[in-house]
Amino acid sequence: MEAKNIVIFINSLDGGGAERVVSTLLNNLVEKHECHLILMENKTSYDLDTRINIISLDEKSNQNGIVKLLRLPIISYKLSKVIKKHNFFQITSFLYRANYVNILAKFLSKHKCIISERIAPSSMYEDNSFSSKISKFLIKNLYNKADKIIPVSKAIENDLIKKFGINIKQKVIYNPYEIEKIEQLSKEDVSYEIDRSKSIITVGSLGKRKNHSLLINAFSKIDDKEYKLYILGKGKEESNLKSLVSELRLNERVIFLGFDNNPYKYLSKCGIFVLASNSEGFPNVLAEAMICGCSVISTDCLSGPREILAPNSDLRFQLENNIELSEYGILTPIKNVEKIKEAMNLLIDDESLRNKYQDKAKQRANDFRIEKIIKQYEEIICVE
Questions:
Q1: pTM of this prediction?
Q2: DSSP-derived 3-state class of residue 116
């Protein structure tokens, strides 16, 4: 393919799944194309190839929701100036706030606008708070103005069509993974003595949507008290989660690892991975845990886990009262402490099931190889 100008726009690269995908994409695309990264906030936690041109709009990161909302037109103007200055033809944005700005800037700079939707909006904005109402309004009124949408799962595509009336062309592209690189990084040493046969791990930002408190409560009830739970990530709920661990007298068995650029070295040393989220898009950590050979448990949240673990099932179905031994891992209902506990006990007690899922996990992960996914992105974001 002829070299093209590729421009990706995102809030920041300060940790997170979408941010990791952007860094992975750019580090691979820069081998053949001229790549530019526009950041709303000048923060990076991932290594980027030095050939990538980084442009920051220098927004502050500690603004509250109302201020962020009011600044959308201002940021859009700043983005349009960058687009005109560099004569960019097409901007691909990741995460909803960057998507809003990208679409608004289109009215000023007339560029081609592609947005990547990383989470099902109806699950992200299910409450009736002011911010949720505003977000739903913006999605309904802005997303149809984009030139194309890249949902990260089929469930997100369906959600945008049925719940938000989005009628422009969509192209589902799953997240890409550099499997050999992840396997190599997974071999690095860690500073903790981790017994793989007695360990459970979760990875993700410590926010309410990830529902780590559900996992901690479920973990406190499992039968085998020799097991330890490792929590890798940072976020606003950290102090609350640590207080919960103290209340449940689990300080010796629940270990907070903080944020690490290389989660794979921890994942590879733990036998079981659990995702307790209320909602997701296409959870990177679930696929990454599978690459690292964990047997996995996940809530059957909208969206992603069912497409990853039970790809041949009805993707519109969602568990309510039971656990499901799917093809590549165990699915549980969302917000259900007892069922996550049941799933953990099942894997802990059944070594053959645990080993089977570890083998199946690696098999499934091959479907998300970057070599396959990068070609799908090139077909959309490398066109001028």
A1: 0.83
A2: strand
